[in-house]
Amino acid sequence: MPRLAFVLPLLLLLVSAAHAGTGFRETTLPGKNADRPVHVSIWYPTASDATPVLLGETPAFIGQPVIKDAEPVAGPHPLVVLSHGYGGSWRNLAWLAADLVDAGYVVAAPDHPGTTTFDMRKPDAVELWKRPGDLSRVIDALLDNPDLTGGIASDRIAAIGHSLGGWTVVELAGGRFDAAKVTKNCMAEFSAIYCKIFEALGIGRDAASNAAMAADLGDARIRAVVTLDLGPGRGLTPESLAAVHIPLMVLGAAADVDADTATEADIAATNKDSDYLARHLPPATTTYSLIPGSLHFSFMQPCKPGAAELIEKEAPGESIVCRDGVGAARGTIHRQVSSMVTDFLGKALADQ
After folding, report:
1. What does the pLDDT read at residue 4?
2. Which of 319, 158, 128, 115 minimizes the C-alpha distance to 248?
3. Taking Cα atoms as reference points, which of 323, 302, 301 lies closest to residue 312?
4. 10-residue stretch averages of pLDDT, the chain, 352 residues long
């Protein structure tokens, strides 16, 4: 019987992976008193043979083929919730969502109010501590509405986040943030750019927000976490990170570091947040890797040829979103990340 209990989840994953394509739908979760509605994008396995459309296709970015509002394959499916970075959206990790669906997962990505492309608020109105709760609300909604996805396996849920999204998913794993500490000597311990980001996010603006940031924002339903070049990781307390008991994969950008010959000092200097996280998490359940050729935005959606020049003309300075390490190809970076993530999640969730 124990062997059967272990094999059944794997069989369910194989069955759900035998689908014809990727279904996609959108929904909105109403906020309490309508104060924080959250837009959610959902990818899921489907056997539909309808003609796909390109999702997120723009003059600069390559779209992903999906079948909108298709009938989902019956589950239960493992679930991955995605968290975008500051000023980003669900589109940023759509490439990874498609690969995860190919592996049998349902994937859901909210647009975090106040820190998304579609809703950028003033620092005094950003409620950063509500970001982890957005993901918890998504999990609630999908568990309560199996018709949206074909059904979710409640014991096989993971979270992945890029940049500020990485901070968000570590909070779900049990990390606790000390806003007062990181803003007290910001220029001395961080950098001018980092301090400006803290200010833009409203970090450390008053005692009430500091207390809200320091609260336990965890969700016990999360069984594994992946961070993609996270920030701000160094505000997470060592004590809270040491107490994280679920498997956690930390992936950092490595374009400025030779991953084969780098010293600990080299890694720490270039990947301060990822390195900090990996050093304070339990070694037995933590995986830390640098992705060759990657810069911070290499984890975002693939760019078309000439996209950097096009973006630079319209928004000077923003073309960095299409920049990777010298000689690196974003497609190659994505394939490596996708392979590492699906392998990690397959093992981590099977062990639950």
Report:
1. 39
2. 158
3. 323
4. 42 47 95 80 96 92 95 96 94 96 97 92 90 96 96 97 96 95 84 83 92 95 97 92 97 70 48 91 96 93 94 89 91 97 96 56
Question: Quick one: tokens of 44?
Answer: 């899921």
Return the closest-CA partner of residue 228 out of 126, 112, 333: 333
- Cα separations in angstroms, 258 against 142, 231, 266: 42, 21, 9
Determine the Cα–Cα distance for residues 313 and 302; give it in Å rounded to an integer: 19
Q: What is the pLDDT of residue 352?
A: 55
CA pair distance 43, 141, nearest whole angstrom: 14
Q: Give CA angle at 83 (63, 151), nearest 5°.
A: 80
Work out the number of other CB atoms within 10 angstroms of the CB of residue 326.
Answer: 9
Q: How many residues does the chain have?
A: 352
- Residue 117, Ramachandran bin (φ over 0: left; ψ between -120 and 50: alpha; else beta): alpha
Q: Give the tokens for residue 245.
A: 């008991």
Q: Are 43 and 101 in contact (CB under 8 A)?
A: yes
**Rounded distance between C-alpha atoms, residue 182 and residue 177, angstroms:** 9
Query: Could you tell me which residues are beta bridge partners of residue 41?
Result: 26, 109
In the beta sheet, which residues pair with residue 177?
Answer: 236
> Cα separations (Å) of 99 from 43, 124, 170, 187, 333?
10, 38, 22, 40, 13
Kind plus residue range of the DSSP H or E element containing 67: strand 64-68
Predicted confidence at residue 109, as pLDDT, reads: 98
Work out the number of other CB atoms within 10 angstroms of the CB of residue 270.
17
Task: Convert 46-69 to b/e letters by CB count within 10 Å (16 or more is b).
Answer: bebeeebeebbeeebbbbbebbee
Instruction: Give the CA distances from residue 237 to residues 40, 170, 233, 243, 249, in Å, rounded to whole numbers and listed in that order.
Output: 30, 11, 9, 10, 18
- What is the per-residue DSSP string for 298-322? GGSPPBPTTHHHHHHHHSTTGGGGG
Q: Is the peptide bond before 232 cis (omega within 30 degrees of 0)?
A: yes
Q: Residue 137 has which token pair?
A: 């609300």
